[in-house]
Fold this protein.
Amino acid sequence: MAEIVVPNSSLYETLVAAMKQRVVTIGRVALYARVSTKDGRQDTENQLIALRDYCAKQGWEIAGEYVDHETGGTSKRPHFQRMFADARARKFDLVLFWSLDRLSREGVSATLNHLERLTAAGVNWRSYTEQYLDSCGLFGDAVIGILAVIAKQERVRRSERASAAVARLRRQGHTEHLGRPRLVVDRGKARRLHEKGWSVRKIADELGMSAATAHRIVTATA
């Protein structure tokens, strides 16, 4: 069997071509920093000093600094939301953050969604302390793919845990905890109110039911 030899130069040229395709022009950068408390025990300044210095070495202009003193377990952070609004307006080319858990601690699925939202807006992202988390890098697409797989596994595990909890409650006979609580409807009172001239809408509001349910009760034959 003939041996096929692939010159090392071919591999080198392939890598160079791939890197050229990933070249991204960065001019304006947004810095995002976050700590979880507002009591002064944690400070974002250490994060910002390193991020500013990194931008200076890269020759990047800092378009804005977005700083939250909130938990990363929710996206309802004022400066986080403003950063995404500015990203949609293309006020910067890249979001630079200290580490991924400073950007979000909402779980892999939600964090992946935030990164994809930035990408969809035409904005790149980079972690200062995690070099592999870089949408400008050669393996940016691979990182997104890996995060997508982890997010899918996270959803599956969450679904499995929920199913197991439901099964346990059913085995124990605690089915009253499953689904929405049943609405107790006082049909007799609904009919009496209707006989007094109350409208269907007023009866529904009084008894805490939908107008459709109230209508079915008052029009049903006794």
Q: What stands out?
A: The chain has two domains: 12-148, 187-219.
